[in-house]
Amino acid sequence: MTYLLLIAIFGAASLVLLLVARRRLAPRALQAMLLAFVALAVLTIVFDSLMIAADLFSYGPGTTGIRLWLAPIEDLAYPAVALLVGVAVWSLVPARPRADADRTREGRA
User: Fold this and answer.
1) CA triplet 50, 68, 59: central angle to 5 degrees?
2) Confidence grade of residue 77 (pLDDT, cut at 50, 70, 90)
3) Is the Cβ–Cβ distance between 40 and 83 less than 8 Å?
4) Structure confidence at residue 109 as a pLDDT band (50, 70, 90)
5) Distance CA 10, CA 8 (A)
6) Adjacent-strand bridge partners of 67
7) Distance between CA 97 and CA 99 in Å, rounded?
8) Intra-chain end-to-end CA distance of the chain, in Å
9) Residue 78: which of 1, 2, 14 has the closest Cα?
């Protein structure tokens, strides 16, 4: 199984989950997600490249060959999928009232 096939499977599943959650997303969620992805992408490129340079791991012939510094471009899919799933799940899980809010209401009654 190639990296691109794994990315396609998990990327499609995360996009479906985000489409389900889109009604609950904040109006500026897209801008926040893009900013978060830029930060995650920079961190991924830097730290993956450092780990590859330290010879902690390497990639076989299953990559596209496109690299950003030493990291293959496919490595950017993992933080993207994590971001999409995280935002979708966060928006779909109903908020619970805080415990201190219950105590405050009881004190006023």
Assistant:
1) 65
2) very high
3) yes
4) low
5) 6
6) 72
7) 7
8) 62
9) 14
What is the DSSP track for the chain?
Answer: --HHHHHHHHHHHHHHHHHHHGGGS-TTHHHHHHHHHHHHHHHHHHHHHHHHHTTS----TTS-S-EETTEEGGGGHHHHHHHHHHHHHHHHSPPPPPHHHHHHHHHH-
The tokens for 85 are 């799933």
pTM above 0.85, yes or no: no
pLDDT the model gives residue 15: 95
Judged against a pLDDT cut of 70, whether residue 26 lies above it is answered with yes
User: Which pair of tokens denotes residue 107?
Assistant: 């004190």
Residue 70 CA to residue 50 CA, distance in Å, equals 8
